[in-house]
């Protein structure tokens, strides 16, 4: 068997020599020439950072996918298609899902409120259980800032101000909504995303339903103050595992009001607030280190390739749209352009 290191070097050489010098290496989806990303940088970054979450198997997947392009007639075209797929069907989902408030605060229609489906009811209970479990486990305290939740059962005795804290997802909620599409295009897009996700990260889930359940499990959560939550969702910082169990170094990718060498630790506080007469509650599982590793790998790929900045630019003007995949964004963009064209034609006729 060829050593993995040799395969990685061959993949890097292929991308550097074939794709990087070609004009098709520049990916642009908008009219703004300043909003672009280089596909060779995306591909090499995925090669570099996949080991942190997917190990050897993940790196072998990325390497094999790149090297497979050398076996087709038009190598550059194949590399361009692969890089574009990773950008639009994998990295995109982490950026479209970074607004946790858009994901969690959606209001049901009047008909849905009157007759909620079993799936809607189950989803509501799952989210509430997730929020309650994470809040209790983390001791009603932001794990980064130390701010106390205004839900703290002993807030009056503490004589400290209470803050609105949020039970935050480590892996974004958009991943749990992959199975939500009903069109053939959205289903196809979801399956492509799911396949890349499993191969890149090594997540041990068998189908989209298991992935959805995983997202709202307390192992995928931590309690954060609003700004800390927003920064984490936008990949401005990530947590890196240390040699101590459940202790992480906070790594900053943007300027943040936090000291260097800052560490975050987790322990289960769910029974710290029980009276002696009360029965002890069940323990709540701590965050899964693998999920932090996945978030860290994605954060670094998005940051060092400027793919995050590119995707943010692509989503400007569509923050209020219910977009869960790149194909859905394209459909919304086309509809908007058509409406603008019709409006312009109508106004020209009037004048």
First CA to last CA: what distance? 73 Å
Task: Decide which structural class fits the backbone.
Answer: mainly alpha
Q: Roughly what is the average pLDDT, rounded to an integer?
A: 85
The percent range for helix content is: 40-55%
- Gross morphology is globular
| Count of helix runs | 14
The proportion of residues in beta strands is 5-15%
Low-confidence segments, given as residue ranges, are 99-113
Compute the number of strand runs.
Answer: 7
Largest sheet: 3 strands, antiparallel
Radius of gyration: 22 Å
Strand order of the largest sheet: 5-6-7
- Element-by-element helix/strand order: HEEHHHHHHHEHHEHEEEHHH
Describe this structure in words.
- It is a single chain.
- The protein contains 14 helices and seven strands.
- Strands 5-6-7 form a three-stranded antiparallel sheet. It has a two-stranded antiparallel sheet with strand order 1-2. It has a two-stranded antiparallel ribbon with strand order 3-4.
- The chain is globular.
- Helices cover 53% and strands 8% of the residues.
- α4 (75-96) packs across α9 (184-201).
- It starts with a helix and ends with a helix.
- Mean pLDDT is 85; it is low at 99-113.
- It has 351 residues and is mainly alpha-helical.
- It has helices spanning 4-19, 39-49, 51-68, 75-96, 100-104, 110-114, 118-137, 155-158, 184-201, 208-215, 226-233, 289-304, 307-315, 326-350; strands at 26-27, 37-38, 165-169, 221-225, 237-241, 247-252, 263-265.
């Amino acid at each position: 068997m060829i050593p993995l290191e040799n395969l990685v070097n061959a993949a890097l050489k292929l991308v550097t020599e074939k794709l990087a010098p070609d004009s098709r290496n520049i990916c642009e989806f908008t009219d703004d020439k300043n909003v672009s990303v280089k596909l060779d940088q995306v591909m090499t970054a995925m090669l570099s950072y996949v080991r942190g979450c997917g190990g050897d198997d993940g790196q072998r997947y990325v390497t094999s996918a790149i090297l497979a392009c050398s076996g087709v007639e038009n190598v550059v075209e194949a590399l361009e298609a692969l890089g574009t797929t990773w950008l639009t069907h994998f990295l995109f989902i982490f950026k479209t899902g970074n607004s946790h408030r858009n994901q969690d605060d959606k209001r049901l229609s009047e008909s849905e409120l009157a007759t909620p489906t079993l799936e809607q009811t189950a989803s509501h209970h799952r989210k509430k259980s997730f929020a309650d479990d994470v809040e209790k486990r983390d001791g009603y305290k932001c794990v980064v800032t130390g701010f106390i939740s205004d839900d703290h059962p002993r807030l009056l005795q503490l004589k400290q101000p209470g803050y609105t804290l949020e039970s935050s997802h480590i892996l974004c909620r958009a991943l749990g909504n992959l199975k939500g599409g009903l069109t053939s295009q959205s289903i196809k897009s979801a399956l492509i995303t799911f396949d890349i996700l499993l191969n890149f990260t090594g997540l041990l889930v068998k189908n989209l339903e298991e992935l959805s359940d995983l997202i709202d499990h307390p192992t995928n959560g931590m309690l954060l103050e609003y700004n800390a939550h927003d920064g984490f969702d936008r990949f401005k910082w990530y947590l890196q595992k240390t040699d101590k169990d459940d202790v992480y170094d906070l790594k900053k990718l943007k300027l943040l009001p936090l000291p260097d060498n800052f560490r975050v630790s987790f322990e289960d506080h769910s029974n710290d607030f029980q009276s002696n007469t009360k029965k002890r509650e069940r323990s709540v599982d701590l965050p899964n280190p693998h999920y932090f590793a996945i978030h860290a790998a994605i954060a670094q790929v998005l940051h060092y390739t400027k793919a995050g900045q590119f995707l943010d630019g692509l989503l400007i003007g569509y923050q209020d749209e219910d977009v869960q995949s790149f194909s859905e964004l394209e459909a919304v963009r086309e509809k908007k352009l058509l409406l603008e064209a019709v409006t312009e034609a109508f106004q020209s006729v009037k004048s």
